[in-house]
């Protein structure tokens, strides 16, 4: 990184799962650097969904480094997720045809429910889950696969955890960490947000802010995708041997399946 910015810059790791992100600062200037970000970042920056992309540079070894504005601000808290600002930004993302076009150019195709089930079955078979709820959830997904009908495919973030929402000091909201983005049913994002953060009696009000009606079909699709995403999380947690998070996901799964 020093060869790109100069030795006068102070560069520190920014953490994260990949270890390829850094903070850089010099004389009041601050940047967020990342190695080999997707070209998708440029479109997200142009639409104001992520902090502004300052530059992109290719290193001699072929790595591509991107630099974004480093904004002072804070991550959202769980209680912030019911705000109109969150609903508005998610609606903007889901309605953007430029985002869909860019992901298609990058080779992404719509994520179909039957493909999710096949991948889940293959992934879960590599792990020994003793908990009956896991098998029950897989059976439930497969049994209800014919009921999942949707003709609208949008760009979904697929990890709308409150930690991925950044509220800047000037009040602007951003959604960061787009490595898992897919073209998919918007119920993937909406369902996980509502199940994780919004009491059921407030779902209808939040969806009005987003611009959707809470139909029986949407309710069912949300439940189906939340069960699928939770199983994906369990498989990842099993691989990483994070037992506390696994227990939380198992309890969450039980709650979802008991939902009417």
From TrEMBL:
Pfam families: APH. Residues 14-215 form the Aminoglycoside phosphotransferase domain. Coiled coil: none annotated. GO terms for molecular function: kinase activity. Keywords: Kinase, Transferase. It comes from the Bacteria. This is Thiamine kinase-like enzyme. It comes from Thermaerobacillus caldiproteolyticus.
């Amino acid at each position: 990184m020093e060869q790109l910015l100069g030795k006068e810059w102070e560069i520190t790791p920014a953490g994260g799962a990949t270890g390829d992100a850094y903070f850089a600062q010099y004389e009041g200037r601050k940047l967020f650097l990342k190695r080999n970000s997707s070209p998708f970042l440029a479109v997200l920056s142009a639409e104001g969904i992520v902090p502004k992309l300052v530059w992109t540079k290719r290193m001699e070894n072929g790595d591509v480094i991107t630099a974004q504005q480093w904004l002072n601000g804070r991550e959202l808290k769980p209680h912030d997720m019911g705000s109109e600002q969150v609903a508005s930004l998610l609606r903007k993302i889901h309605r953007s045809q430029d985002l869909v076009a860019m992901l298609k150019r990058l080779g992404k195709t719509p994520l179909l429910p039957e493909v999710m089930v096949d991948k889940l079955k293959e992934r879960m078979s590599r792990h020994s889950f003793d908990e009956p709820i896991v098998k029950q959830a897989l059976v439930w997904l497969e049994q209800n696969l014919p009921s999942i009908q949707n003709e609208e495919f949008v760009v979904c973030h697929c990890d709308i955890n409150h930690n991925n929402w950044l509220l800047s000091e000037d009040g602007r909201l951003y959604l960061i960490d787009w490595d898992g983005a897919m073209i998919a049913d918007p119920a993937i994002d909406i369902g996980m947000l509502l199940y994780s953060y919004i009491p059921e009696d407030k779902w209808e009000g939040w969806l009005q802010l987003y611009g959707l009606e809470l139909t029986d079909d949407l309710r069912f699709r949300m439940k189906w995708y939340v069960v699928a995403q939770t199983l994906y999380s369990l498989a990842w947690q099993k691989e990483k041997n994070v037992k506390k998070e696994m227990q939380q996901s198992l309890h969450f799964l039980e709650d979802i399946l008991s939902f009417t």
